[in-house]
What we know:
Elements: H1 12-22, E1 26-31, H2 40-46, E2 55-57, H3 69-84, E3 88-93, H4 104-109, E4 117-119, H5 129-144, E5 161-165, H6 174-187, E6 191-196, H7 202-205, E7 213-216, H8 219-233, E8 237-238, H9 245-259, H10 274-279, E9 290-295, H11 297-309, E10 314-320, H12 326-335, E11 341-342, H13 346-356, E12 360-363, H14 365-374, E13 378-380, H15 399-415, H16 421-425, E14 462-463, H17 465-471, H18 476-492, E15 497-498, H19 500-511
Parallel strand pairs: 1-2, 1-3, 3-4, 5-6, 5-7, 7-8, 9-10, 9-12, 10-11, 12-13, 14-15
Helix pairs in contact: 1-5, 5-8, 6-15, 11-12, 13-14, 17-19, 18-19
Amino acid sequence: MQLSFWTYEGPPHVGAMRVAAAMRDVHYVLHAPQGDTYADLLFTMIERRASRPPVTYTTFRARDLGADTASLFKDAVRDAYARFRPQALLVGASCTAELIQDDPGGLARALGLPVPVVALELPAYQRKENWGAAETFYQLVRACAGPPGPRPARPAGVLPCCNLLGPASLGFRHRDDVTEIAGLLAGLGIGVNVVAPLDASPADLARLRDADFNVVLYPEIADTAARWLERSFGQPTVRTVPIGVAATRAFIAEIAAVAGVDPEGSLRTDECRLPWFSRSVDSTYLTGKRVFVFGDATHAIAAARIADGELGFDVVGLGSYSREFARDLRAAAAELGLDPLITDDMAEVEARIVALQPELVLGTQMERHVAKRLGIPCAVISAPVHVQDFPARRAPQMGFEGANVLFDTCVQPLMMGLEEHLLTMFREDFEFRDDAPPSHLGAAAPPPPPTMSQPLSASSLRWAPEAERELGKVPFFVRGKARRNTERFAAERGLSAITVETLYDAKAHFAH
């Protein structure tokens, strides 16, 4: 086991809490010691929920280990059912309580409660949060959706409908995505039967079989359940994730083919401003910007494709902490000619960022901290996120409006620094100086560490102090490219030191 000072995913019981907290009339009894109740803060403080999640903890203490912790758990289950009267009860153990092997499922079923009891066996030392959420949702669907069997045909004249699967609590813009996709479906004449797990009850899960097909919005959470529904009820599954203009158009086309409707009216992108904005004069200086992307597999793959194909960036790195979807990430990286980074070690991600020297980072809240420390613009495009990424306004990632939001998300960190042009235009003015940091990164932003100044292939090159000062006069948004070109120029000529003359020779060489 590796000690982590920060982690992309919590243990699997946190994933189970995300599903329970997203649903209605579900309660989760968690066998856990004091100290494992910290997860409440994720929902009340970060997601800004008006109520605490529907979880009861046994909160046994050290002195209880010498007594009967099984009885303690059964009492907690009885009390939780009597108090909350849920339609379904989840029971399980936290990573610490798993070690005492009290069998929460067997203990709860022995009580004979008049509601479905779903026992969660979540191997805390082999799996993590997203897997725990997927397994919890799958087990709830199996318990509530009814016995497998063929569905009756849709009566003539009745509009087709689908289930939207995957949105959950603590998800990155999940609630806004559901609103956006429901509007797209309405434009196609398709109804939404059930959205789950977000805002669904066990009674709603019993109606999943009534839909004509399922839409998997977030594979990390819904893929396992969708495959079971496909096998059990013969429901087709739409798996295209509608993030970005091209993916949204592909999503509409796939939906139309499955539902048998005409997609032409919904394929119009008049309300989507990303294509025009990305071709406008204001965006031309962004073309070719070096971008590093990291996050959960769904959002990282989508962000990389949008950055490359719709914004004209140069994607130099792509990675994810979603090991269960490593194959999908490797395929996406191969399309871009990249070596994928699949890790849940934040230090490895930081090392890759340092080595690649991107001009923009698209990642999680952890990459935001790394980029701030390195002085690189950053935008958050994936969970894990912090409170500022649960805005009061609508800010979807999916659909055509989501493409508009993504354009702003990716471009604004770069556009905010345009005032640094003034440092070049008014360099002799007393109010400006060469060592002034980019204002949009904070007045106290520390200088990049030494390793940022040299790519790994040019680590033996030495910059003369006067050359470093001259490089500092180059506008910040092309300074990285100027440094890389100069080091490449010097390395090709076998130089061991870079002087001012080398800098100007390299500039003249690459200008032709």
